[in-house]
Design goal:
Strand content: over 45%
Strand order of the largest sheet: 1-3-4-6-5
Distance between the termini: 44 Å
Largest sheet: 5 strands, mixed, barrel
Number of helices: 1
Helix content: under 10%
Number of strands: 8
């Protein structure tokens, strides 16, 4: 049995970005930050480390993801994919070195932000500051 599944909960570092393939198929790119924290054994100080994840969202789900903005708290689940590409450099001669990138191909996405209560007790969309 094999399984390639990742579940991430974090915050978007910038607004969702809609892109188009060479075949004119649109997709959405999310830049998702996750954080891990620990207490250093020697110093006793609390430490933290942020990891950035490139998440790719296709189809109808991509249309929803395109509405997300910087700071949105989301949970994504999907496959981990690594691909190689050769950067296109215009006007310069390069050695055409292949690079690799790891991405999450998103299958499900949940917006975790909660409604904010207004002064009149009504609920408005958005996250508390």
């Amino acid at each position: 049995m094999y399984q390639n599944r990742a579940t991430l909960i974090g915050f978007l570092g910038k607004d969702a970005e809609v892109k188009t393939t060479r075949n004119n198929v649109s997709f959405t790119v999310l830049s998702l930050a996750t954080k891990r924290s620990w207490k250093d054994r020697e110093s006793g100080d609390y430490m933290s480390e942020t990891t950035w994840h490139r998440c790719i969202v296709w189809g109808k789900l991509g249309e929803f993801a395109a509405t997300l903005t910087k700071g949105a708290h989301v949970q994504v689940e999907g496959d981990i994919r690594t691909r190689e590409y050769t950067p296109q450099v215009t006007g310069k001669k390069t050695d055409q070195v292949k690079k690799s990138i790891t991405e999450i191909r998103v299958a499900t996405i949940n917006k975790l932000d909660r409604p904010v209560k207004g002064n009149d007790g009504s609920e408005a969309e958005g996250a508390a500051a």
